[in-house]
Structures are given as structure tokens and as C-alpha cells.
Amino acid sequence: MTQIDLSPKTCANCPIRPRAICSRCTADELMELDKIKFYKTYPAGASVVLMGDPMTFVASVVSGVATLSRSMIDGRMQMVGLLLPSDFIGRPGRDKASYDVTAVSELTLCHFHKKPFEKVTHATPHVQERLVEIALDELDAAREWMLLLGRKTAREKIASFLLICARRLGRKEGESLHLELPLTRDAMSDYLGLTIETVSRQMAALKRDGVLLLEGTRKVKIPDFSRLLDEAGDDSDGATLS
Amino acid sequence: MTQIDLSPKTCANCPIRPRAICSRCTADELMELDKIKFYKTYPAGASVVLMGDPMTFVASVVSGVATLSRSMIDGRMQMVGLLLPSDFIGRPGRDKASYDVTAVSELTLCHFHKKPFEKVTHATPHVQERLVEIALDELDAAREWMLLLGRKTAREKIASFLLICARRLGRKEGESLHLELPLTRDAMSDYLGLTIETVSRQMAALKRDGVLLLEGTRKVKIPDFSRLLDEAGDDSDGATLS
DNA sequence: CGCCTTCTTGAACGGTCTCAAGCCCAGTGG
DNA sequence: CCACTGGGCTTGAGACCGTTCAAGAAGGCG
């Protein structure tokens, strides 16, 4: 989980450029952004911001995994977003955080001070444009998740989660698909609106039924991808893998 | 529910201007938009678009209520958005509908042909800017809803729904707050991730406990707003009413 | 009036949660 | 080497909340 990247951090060799907020930027625009950016690495488990905190920056995930979550006064919590490399954190035009952001693995962010970022935003339509796309993509993901939370069974929820992970993190090896889960069972339960016990039981059930193989608790093999699709209950949105 | 508006439909007397996609536009920009817009009214119950349909337009809700929903092959469905006047439908840059859009009351939309709208979007930063805001607001609402779907009890779900309705549709009359529910029990159940029976039972329970009064099935009085806030389980986000 | 549709109410079932142990494994210290 | 510890995970038994199935009430409208 703890990968050490010794290469210098510059826009030129940035691994997330193709999908990030700056993907459409010209060389000139990149230089503008470059002036106001800074990198920071958080250890696993660290809190990046807490709901209600003043937000003085926006950022892109460069490496690692973070979660967005909301919680109720009595402690119940629901994860509302999973942030993987290239995902964007923060909202221009709002000065208080609407969610808790937590690093679940070692996490490196590319920060922009918010005020200057907003200026750049107004001046460069390419950033604004990409921001609309990102926001609308996240909106689609959130709504997909609403269907999962409101209507899917525990088993379908687990299968859907594996599907999402497989699409973004999986690697084909021969016939089957390998992936390493980015979350603990506990975090999975927060994501899926379940308890940790139910997550554990359903993982066991899917294993028993041959939908997946487990190596340890995090490494998963999917022998038959279409089987997983069925289990997730989605009306197959094509795209076997990116 | 069926209001007939005989006034001529023009941007000049548009009731939703302050919040709509065009709210920031200058007179010149409005004229550009005016060229590519057209109004259309749908009867209650009509389908506006179905998931997967080609989307040739985007639109704003002028009057009436519409819902966004997704459904699974076996018929389970989850509402993922409630569209009230001034809300925006559609997504520039995508040509297939991601959800079903349904009119739940008589519904009037202000349509823009998508292609020309996208051009205007690129040319006028004010529209782009407002689009980012709208998308991010919807994202916040969707994530709030995820907390509700994943973690709240049936009773809390009903109370939260009433709260949302009260905030956007309620009118103070003396001490108490009056509002007319925009949805049937059935649509409420789709929204809240419940069954219609549970909705009915919990409405009855809230009535029994004095949280609300019912006149018929749609007209609701809230004698004590802060009581409703408690029942919803939210960490009071201030804003008693608009 | 009868016939819709919408809503309410009741009884039984079942999926998920709660509570409580116990397992596995890595790390630590004797 | 072992014993101990703590975190993450699994497993079991029972309770509970919301669903399912079924019937009936309340309007709206011919």
C-alpha cells in the first residue's frame, strides 16, 4: 500500500494528467496552475478535512485512496464518494467542507489554493469545462449509488462494489481478473450502507458460490466477469473493462 | 396541481430566472438563448425521456414537478432526483439519457436544442459557470440523499422528505407550516427506498405523534418545525426556511 | 350506484442488524 | 521458542425493522 515515488513531482511527468482537472489545459494554462499548486502526502488513516472546516484549497488525488463521508450525530456514517487517483476534491465557490475527507491509504494530493484557483477557473474555459464534466460524472456515479443503497440486496451491493473496483483497479491475468480491494471490510460497510458482519457474510457467500476467489482478505480473483455482472443486478452497461 | 398560466412565455417575465441556468446572463446572452429555446407542456404521468434514449435537448423546469429515476431489469426502481421549477434537465456533452424523466404533475419545460446550447455554453462563461454551480448543488443533494438511503430509518426518511418539501414548497401560516406534497405515496416510496405500505404507516405514526397534521392525503401542516428537524436526524444545517 | 385508483391497516415472513464469541495473523517482548 | 496483544475479520444466535401478501377503506368520477 505504501508506494514510494522518488520521481520529481512536476506537471510534465504527472501520472494523472489524462483524467485530471487540468487535462484540457494548454502549456500556458498549465504554467498558470503550476504557480499555485503544491503537493502534500498524508499517512493512511489521516483526516484531510472535516465537515464544516473552512476549505482553503481544492486538490486532485495523485496517488493513494481517499473517502468522502457524511455522518450523523449518533455516529452512523455513510460514505458518499471514493476518491482514486485523478479524482478531484473540493468545490470552487464554497468555503466550508460539506463532507469528511479521509486518507485510507498513504495519499498524495496536488493542492491548489482556492482563491487563485477560482481566478484561473474564470480565465481559462478549459478548466471550467473539465470541472463541469467531472461534476456531472460524479453526479452520475452518486445516482448510480443511490439505486444501490435504496434498492439492492446485500449480495448485490457487494457484487456491485467489486464491479466498480474491477473496472478501475482490476488487471486481467489469463482468464480471470485480479484486483486488490482498496478498502477494509469496515470501510466497505460504510460505503455500502451495511454492517461489517453482513459484508463479511456476503463475501463468504460469493466465495462459496464460486463468484470470486480470495487470497487473504484483500486480494480477489474474479474467474468469470459476466457472472459478477449478473450478481450485481445491473442492466449490463457494456464496457467489460476500460 | 394543474395550474394554467396564460401569460406569454418570454424570458422577460420568466418566473424561474433567478435560479435557472440563465440566471447570470446579460441581455445579449439571453437573446442568444432565446433563439434556440422552445416551451413544451407535458400532462401528468407523461414520460419526458427514457433511459438510453438519445437526448437532443436540455431543459429547465418552468412549472410543475418531474422525477429522475433509474430502474433495474426486475422492476425495482429508485428515484434519484426530484425536479422542481428552475431545476435543470440534461447534460451537455452526453447524447444518451442516463435516467428516466417523468412528469408527475402537469409540467412545462423550457427546452434548448442541445447542439446549439453547447455552442452558447462555450461562448458564454456565465452559462458555464452557472452549470458548474447547478451540477455541484445537485451533487450535494445526491450525497445528502445517499446518507438518507444508506443509514436512516423509515421514520427518519419520511421526516427528511417532509423537510425538503417544506424548505422548497412550504408557506408559513401563523405558527405552523403548510405544504402540499408534490408526490403520491407510491412516488414517495420510490424516492425514499421504501415500500408504499411503510410510507403510509410512518406517515400515520408521525401524525399520531403530533409531528404533523393531515388534510386529505396531500396537504400537510407542520405545527413545530424544530420537532421535524429532530425527527429527520440531521445535524441541523441551520436555514429554518428559505 | 359501481368501478376505478389511491391509500390504509393487519398478520406473517425474512433479510439485515445486534450482540457476543472466536479466529487469524503480525508485532512485541519475555 | 513461546505467550501475549491488538486489529481486522469471521461466525453464530436471536431480535427487530421493513417487506410481502392480503384485505378493506376512502375518495373521485362515470
TrEMBL record, chains A, B:
GO terms for molecular function: DNA binding; DNA-binding transcription factor activity. Residues 152-226 form the HTH crp-type domain. It comes from the Bacteria. SUPFAM superfamilies: cAMP-binding domain-like (SSF51206), Winged helix' DNA-binding domain (SSF46785). CDD domains: CAP_ED (cd00038), HTH_CRP (cd00092). GO terms for cellular component: cytosol. Transmembrane segments: none annotated. SMART domains: cNMP, HTH_CRP. Keywords: DNA-binding, Transcription, Transcription regulation. This is CRP/FNR family transcriptional regulator, anaerobic regulatory protein. It comes from Litoreibacter ascidiaceicola. The lineage of its organism: Bacteria, Pseudomonadati, Pseudomonadota, Alphaproteobacteria, Rhodobacterales.
